[in-house]
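Usage

Read records sequentially. Each one opens with the input sequence:
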Amino acid sequence: MQNPEICRSQAMKCMLLAGDASDVPYKFMLLSIAQLWRTIADTTEEMEALYGDPESRVVPAKAA
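and closes with the structure output:
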């Protein structure tokens, strides 16, 4: 699962690149990717709220 802060940072990078893009299809592609990063961030936060932070879970060792 992704860190929501990293996902939002990636979204911001895409938005900045889109702001500098002169090619319209490229700009729309970057804005679409930015939206996907924001969706991943939001979904990750929702999942963490429901199930807790997966990084804090202890995974039992398998019996040999």
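Summary fields computed downstream for this record:
- The mean pLDDT is 89.
- The chain has two helices and no strands.
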